[in-house]
Amino acid sequence: MLTGAGISAESGIPTFRGEDGLWRKYRAEQLATLSAFIQDPKLVWEWYDWRRGIIDTKEPNPGHEVLAGWEGFFPQFALITQNIDGLHQKAGSNNVTELHGNIWKQRCIEEKTISEYHDVPLKEIPPHCPECGALLRPHVVWFGESLDGTILQKSFMLSSTCDVMFAIGTSAVVQPAASLPLSAAEAGAKFIEINPDPTPLTSYADFSFRAKSGELLPLLDAELRRRSEEKKE
Ligand code: OAD
């Protein structure tokens, strides 16, 4: 299961590339790169503080809730997300592989220690490490940065060994995340896409649902549970 910003769209969190997408209004290179942070940590943190403020008021939608329920329903369920909003966990998912980090976590730029703060708004902008006084940065992956090697390796391992792969609410233009469904399909998994719009992955999908995930996933869930009950009888 790979999710992207689209799964949180129905919770009211802006996506990146849609009509009202963040990258239509803001320039990624001024806000989501290491060089932007080094040049102006206050500006970058203000942007993350603003986003934390938005995310803090939002609740998981039925799409997140179905995936949280599937953790117990399917024996080897794995959830990989590009999202940093923490809504999968808020919906009850316990085992989430976060490819791009988490907006509620900070990392000391000197010691590399990771901490979690939920203060909204932040008490200090930019925040500093309570241990060594160095700057803290958002624990997220910025443009031009590599993903955590262990997380990436685990994600490819999970994808290339699964029976069924879903790509939900992702435009599939950011690598290496966009390659995960392809690695699953190449290894023989059924590949299902849920997205109101076509993406570069659509032509590789066995099933492509042009639908909102918060509407389609509950329907799919009800049908799967009905069939599972039927089998038991
Ligand atoms: P995008 O904003 O690129 O794409 C969101 C996708 O969700 C689009 O394909 C929409 O059609 C789809 N969508 C919109 N509403 C939906 C709904 N209700 N149900 C299902 N799908 C819906 O977001 P991502 O693909 O997640 O990276 O973007 C990938 C990465 O680019 C992000 O993780 C972020 C960004 O730059 C970093 O910050 C490193």
Identify the notable features of this structure and list them briefly.
elongated; Rossmann fold; six-stranded parallel beta sheet
Q: Could you characterize what this model shows?
A:
- By secondary structure, this protein is of the alpha/beta class.
- The chain has a single domain (2-232), classed as 3-Layer(aba) Sandwich (Rossmann fold), CATH 3.40.50.1220.
- The protein has helices spanning 22-25, 28-31, 34-39, 41-56, 62-73, 87-91, 149-160, 179-186, 213-232; strands at residues 2-3, 79-81, 96-98, 101-108, 114-116, 136-140, 164-168, 190-194, 207-209.
- A hairpin with a 5-residue loop joins strand 4 and strand 5 (114-116).
- It is elongated and about 60 Å long.
- The two termini are 29 Å apart.
- The mean pLDDT is 95.
- It binds 2'-O-acetyl adenosine-5-diphosphoribose.
- 2'-O-acetyl adenosine-5-diphosphoribose (OAD) binds at residues 4-6, 9-10, 15-18, 21, 32, 82, 100, 141, 169-171, 174, 194-197, 199, 212-214.
- 2'-O-acetyl adenosine-5-diphosphoribose binds next to helix 9.
How would you spell out the order of helices and strands?
EHHHHHEHEEEEHEHEEH
| Number of contiguous helices | 9
User: What would the average pLDDT be, to the nearest integer?
Assistant: 95
Main β-sheet description: 6 strands, parallel
CATH class: Alpha Beta
